[in-house]
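Worked example

This section walks through a single chain of length 270. The input is the sequence exactly as stored; nothing has been trimmed or padded.
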Amino acid sequence: MTRDEKIYLSDCNLAEYRREVTRWRSVGEIHEEHDLLLTLGPSTFPSTNVAMYLGGHDRSSAVLLFDRIRSFYAEHNASFSVQMRQHADSPLDDVCRREKMIPAINAPCLVIDHPLSAPEAPPKVELRYVTTPAGVRDFAFVITQSYVSLGMPAYVGNYLFGEPARLLQPCTRLLVAYEDGRPVSAAMILFYCNIAGLYWVGTLEAKRGQRFSKACVMEMTNEAFRLGAVLVTLQASTFGEPLYLRLGFEEITRYLWYMTFIKAPARRES
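Given that input, the structure is written out below as tokens.
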């Protein structure tokens, strides 16, 4: 598989992840028009309302594209973010900077095309695949608490994972690591376009540095290949990048994330 093919499939998987996260809540909305994906989540926080463009554009069309993104979220009184592809969105990136959007994340896109060695879980740790809403709640607890250190308010996790049964879909696999019966680490894979995306890798802050995330990442990567994936892709945080590189993942591009906040009343759920 060529680098360009890996990048294309990673773009597609990331876009599908945005759709799938939006489907986790019955109030979510997904809009697509002319290669533009617009997702509207249950919160006015920008990380639940994400725009991503999957086509090509130049400087003049990038201005029109940004205007469409901004007007869509203005119609819904929602703060929003724009997911940027470093390999394709330079004109749109320039517009976001000119419009003084906040650069929030610059994440390397890392991939691997082969299984890893068997995971080495720390003592008294059990890795369990999630099959019930109760397991989803354990997953949500870990992720919500661990992502606070990455800047995601805890209430956003409560919004995202508020309907646990909706996360139990054939396209996703959730894993939780338990230490003495208590959830301490978690990860998720999403299958789309014959590849798997690794998302929501997190460990409770008090339990970091004890190989929990490493065990989850290795198990989930191997599970993806066992289930037929030809590639595993992810967008690494600053905390996670050194681990993935040590395991053999390679960088093929980067994804940038810009946010903007507006003062608006929270949308009512139904």
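What to look for: The helical segments are 3-23, 59-75, 90-98, 133-146, 154-160, 212-226, 241-247.
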